[in-house]
Amino acid sequence: MPSSLGTALTVSVFGQSHSPAVGCVVEGLPAGMPVDQDALAAFVARRAPGNDPWGTPRREPDLPRIVSGLNVDGETCGAPLAVIIENTNTRSQDYSNLLDVPRPGHADFTAWAKWHGAQDVPGGGHFSGRLTGPLCAAGALALQWLATRGVSVRAHVAELAGIEDAPFSALDNSVEAREALAREMSALADGRRMPTLDVEAGQRMIDAVMAARAERDTVGGVVECACCGLPAGVGSPMFDGIENVMARALFGIPAVKGVEFGRGFAAARMRGTENNDPYEVRDGACVPRTNNAGGILGGITTGAPLLVRCAFKPISSVMVEQDSVDLASMEPARLKVHGRHDTTAVIRAVPVVEAVCALAVADALLAWPPQE
Ligand SMILES: Cc1cc2nc3c(=O)[nH]c(=O)nc-3n(C[C@H](O)[C@H](O)[C@H](O)COP(=O)(O)O)c2cc1C
Questions:
Q1: Does residue 372 fall inside a structural domain?
Q2: If you count Cβ atoms within 10 Å of the first and of the last residue's Cβ in the chain, which end, N or C, has fewer?
Q3: Residue 1's pLDDT band (cuts 50, 70, 90)
Q4: Is 108 in the pocket of ligand 1 (CB under 6 A)?
Q5: Total domains, the chain
Q6: Which ligand 1 atom minimizes the distance to the CA of 107?
Q7: Residues sharing a CB contact under 8 Å with residue 137, sequence separation 6 or more, in sequence order
Q8: 344 in ligand 1 pocket by Cβ < 6 Å?
Q9: CATH at residue 175
């Protein structure tokens, strides 16, 4: 049962919510790459719940510790690079009622069906949002390598509880739109509490999350991510395309239920004449004038910004009583969830989406140019 990803750049994620630690093993980073450990820790810290009331009250330092893979100068040495993040604040007793009665919407039932009771239940076990900590650590390393190749990756909360942020500018692939996208991406870098482009929309999202929380309920939404600086020609046709690689990685993030590229499902309602991206010559290169394709055609990059959107379902651990089944007696049961939970995964998932996109793109780039 591997929790592993990648071909040229591989990541294995290990741990459970209440095990001594969670972590990852990263292989395939070029040797001799200086690793900025402060930047890595700062990136991992972005997914912490902070003091915001919509985040889980479970607070931990979440300090990533690199235990393998660096030389004395702090550069990658070619050996597998392992990072651990200790779990220091666990309350397993909060989950005792879930040992036999699964939460609707969580993986308690499917883990029981697969592992016949041997699964680690407390905190959601290996299905916990805590496993996104190591993903962020691995992604931070990929981002550091991508920066040396001129590739940047940024995400924002595009929609939360039905309230929409302004979209990234990259659907228009003009020089002005690309400059606007760069400005939007760097504006998000200031660590704002709600990572939206439209600050007012962000405030309305906060109000909607707080309203749901007051009703002991949860909300979902959409994270949009842009990757800039990729050359045209990266990727493969059919099964190993950039879309395939990214979708596989993004569906590894807990609570992701949909992934779309460029216009995505909206393209199904467009005509070819609207959806096609006409080409033009810019600085001697052939470039698409618009970017409905989200930077990918035939699984291969067009050179336009890569645009992907991920739909997150609402957190399943709601604080109202719901119907379930006692799996020991096979009798109907009512379940009240205890424990400490987020009201939404969407806000904390923004750096996670950046990390996972960075891992997928770095994997494709490390395998490029193709040998065939
Ligand atoms: C950043 C993040 C935080 C999460 N926090 C919680 C949480 O506090 N409580 C919860 O029940 N699920 C939480 N989840 C979602 C569950 O981990 C997820 O729903 C579960 O593993 C089942 O997987 P699935 O939703 O992909 O089917 C979180 C997910 C992410 C990405």
A1: no
A2: C
A3: low
A4: no
A5: 1
A6: 22
A7: 23, 24, 40, 43, 44, 64, 83, 85
A8: no
A9: 3.60.150.10
**Does the beta carbon of 132 sit less than 6 angstroms from any atom of ligand 1?**
yes
CA distances from 215 to 52, 206, 344 (A): 17, 14, 13
Tokens 């071909």 sit on residue: 7
Give residue 156's domain range: 4-367
CB of 129 sitting under 6 A from ligand 1: yes
What pTM was estimated for this model as a whole? Answer: 0.97
CB of 314 sitting under 6 A from ligand 1: no
Instruction: Confirm whether 44 is domain-assigned.
Output: yes
Measured in Å, residue 218 CA sits from the centre of ligand 1 at 11
**Range scoring the smallest mean pLDDT among 18-32, 85-99, 259-273, 348-362:** 85-99
Q: Which residue of 342, 343, 346 sits with most ligand 1 atoms within 8 Å of its CB, as the best mutation to test the pocket?
A: 342
The pLDDT value recorded for residue 258 is: 98
pLDDT digits (tens, 9 = 90+) for 92-136: 777 678 789 999 999 999 999 999 889 988 888 899 999 999 999
